[in-house]
Amino acid sequence: MSAGAHTVVSRENGSASRMGEIMSSEPTFMGEGHPPGENALDEGMPFVILTGMSGAGRSTAARSMEDLGWYVVDNLPPEMLSELGRLMARPSSTVRRLAVVADVRSMEFFDALFSALMRLREAGINPRIIFFDADDESLVRRFESVRRPHPLQGEGRLLDGIQAERARLADLRSVSDLVVDTSGLNVHQLSAKVRSMIAEATQVRLRMAVVSFGFKYGVPLDADVVFDMRFLPNPFWIPELRPFNGLDAPVSEYVLSRPGAVEFLERLDSVLQVMIEGYLSEGRRYVTVAIGCTGGKHRSVAVAQALSDRIGTAEVSVMTFHRDLGRE
Q1: Residue 287 annotated as binding site
Q2: Residue 21: per-residue pLDDT
Q3: pLDDT in tens, 61-104
Q4: Which residue of 124, 249, 255, 288 has the fewest CB atoms within a 10 Å radius of its CB?
């Protein structure tokens, strides 16, 4: 496996336009940007804002980041965000990594967050926004498991509250630096995903998630690019291979030995290298590559694993997630 590769089996309107203005210059995340000494945040202190759908994993992510040594502030009023950022940016501050959990469900909070981010940027402080999302089915299941109503449910159904919140947060989601899809993940899997994303190595310039999935279960919400492996023969129809998955040698060897498989991997590797250079020049820090087949068990798993083994470098950390493995 290449350097930096990890595998996990299981990622408008006026307001959006204004939010887009503050994100347009690609804010920093891992200590790159301002010259040394100009700003403590950019010397070595990542500053992130955790937001997103209720029940999508913000609190779990916050706890995981605390375990990794981050200073986490929960539900800080947006009006206080800029002042906190300035305090933490002082040379005397001992806080090196700051995460703020923002619960933004009203237009007033959205406008206040926009204003706070504008003030931070004017001060040379550039937080990144991480938006946690999940499909309606996963959110309904999580709320029902804890027997709690959705904050926006009112007298209506649980699904009504979820859909109302999704509509209110659509603009914020569209301008977030990273959208994390937690659909189908339990608490332990989400913690593992967060720990993989928040890596310690500052030399890593880009984090790439390679996600295998089954089209029958839907395309991952956070996918930046999607590739379809259904052009390859399906091992499902070979009785002796059906019980295995793409991580097992018999299936992997079968899939990768089919006509076109190696050529596809070589060309995809070349395309991704070009894309990586472009992402780096544009200031992107995360990208999700989704590899799909029918059920997410054989072809997509084998190809995603093979791709991950090819592209990890000292500058590109590759995380591999097999989202639908085990569902069949």
Answers
A1: no
A2: 42
A3: 888 888 777 889 987 887 788 888 878 777 777 777 888 888 76
A4: 249
- Tell me: is residue 133 an annotated ligand-binding position: no
**Residue 52 marked ligand-binding:** yes
Could you tell me the residue range of the domain that residue 84 belongs to? 11-202
Torsion, CA 220, CA 99, CA 129, CA 38, rounded to 10 = -140
212 annotated ligand binder: no
Question: Alpha-carbon distance 122 to 133, whole Å?
Answer: 29
Please tell me whether 56 is known to bind a ligand. yes
What is the C-alpha to C-alpha distance for residues 270 and 55, in angstroms, rounded to an integer? 38
Query: Which residue carries 């989601």 as its tokens?
Result: 173
CA distance 25 to 183: 30
Question: Of 148, 183, 202, at which residue does a domain stop?
Answer: 202
The verdict on residue 2 lying in a domain is: no
pTM, 2 dp: 0.53
Q: How many domains does the chain have?
A: 2
Q: What is the helix (H) or strand (E) element at residue 284, kind and residue range?
A: none
- Is 58 annotated as a binding-site member? yes
144 and 84 share a domain?
yes
Q: Does the annotation flag 299 for ligand binding?
A: no
